[in-house]
Amino acid sequence: MRSPFPEAITTLIMNSTDLAFLPALEQSQLIRRREVSPLELTQLYLDRIEQFDSKFGSYFTVLAEEAIADAKTKTEQVAQVEDPNTLPQFFGVPISVKDLNPMKGVPYTLGCGALKQSIGEFDDATIGKIRQAGFVILGKTATPELGTMPFTEPPDFPPARNPWNLEYTPGGSSGGAAASLAAGLCAIAQGSDGGGSIRGPAFCCGLLGIKPSRGRISYAPIGDTPGGIATNGPLARTVADAAAFLDVVSGYVVGDPYWLPDPDPSFLQTARSGAVQGTGKPLKVAYATKIKPFDAIHPTCEQAVLDTVQRLIDLGHHAEEIEPDYSALIDPFTLVFRACLSGTGVPIEAMSPMNQWLVSHNDTAGAYFAAVWQMQIFARQLVAQFSAYDVVVMPVYTQPQIRVGEWADLSPEQAFDKVAAWIAPCPPLNATGQPAIALPTGFAETGLPTGVQLVGRPGDESTLIAVAAQIETHRPWIQHAPTIESRW
Question: Is 168 helix (H, G, I), strand (E, B) or coil?
Fold first, then answer.
């Protein structure tokens, strides 16, 4: 019988590196046109992981046998189905998932050495929806211990490194996710964000990352994270990829304590229309290059904001400067963050010195609830300030990428102060539950990526996606990829 994928082998041999960096939706179209098979794509990425990931430390667990078996089944399905366009959106496309999400029967370490033998007992809602969307799961990506730090250097594991320069961090806590995608070791990556953990790695690695609105993606089988500060979301090469991922993992799951309605039109339709016509109307844009009470934003990060704002003005939007004050959030957010860590159930003696210091504060239940209430009061004030604008443009981090191990010799208290100042623009949006998109803007003199975040009104990812697609159309970044030696 003649192969239903007549051009696939030639495509794979001649253009495998290009294929590895092809956007996920374009890979999906190749599969639907039977020009490449799920099995060939999966094998391509597994070969690249085997060859390159020792440099990047992006995967904790590679599910080679499981991925190959799944890809073989999907390849047979594509060959047999009468109309491949009836298959799920990402059928056969390889993805990485973060090791803070449980998968049934798969190691579930949370970046903690004491949990290396731990096995997931169930698929959480996000993993379930990833499977329903047709993805082939390549493995579990690296995260800092218990997801607490914005760099991915957990004890008992190799550090994750930035594919643009191995001396630098890919960020955290979705550092392995970002490194796997930036290095061409998956087509798209799932991450999560409780204080910048999608946006920071996207910034560090020159990718696009979406922190969705609170209630957009279910945290089933649990209700939410303490204080509702965390959410799952995508890291992607393009706005369309990220939007389509958001479409397939969003939505109500029975018993959710709160949720948002599905968008109409879909996020992918918004991305595509935004790329063609923008938002369809001039928007009111605010921008911030100063944030109280923190020190001045590094000139590289400030210039990225100013360049983005100028681009939006050139596209016909209106902009004005604001200076938000985050002073009232620092203490309550930190206490809620510590409570999240304490609630993991991991014995304190099994934690790193930094995490031991964080949980040693012995916060009471009363102090936790008081902190949640203070955080909610601050959130209302910030949402009210931002509500006058369609989009707010801000830095992702206050400083460029740090080197691997840069703060390793500091005391936990000193290192945490450095961390808090570095990620300062991110946690307030976790407190408010607003959507935010990190997107690349170019490169610094160091050769490392630069970027900004776009912040929207609660529940309004659509405007952000349209604006990001408009920016992407006028200044695409998909052609940029780190130089990685290849045998192909």
Answer: strand
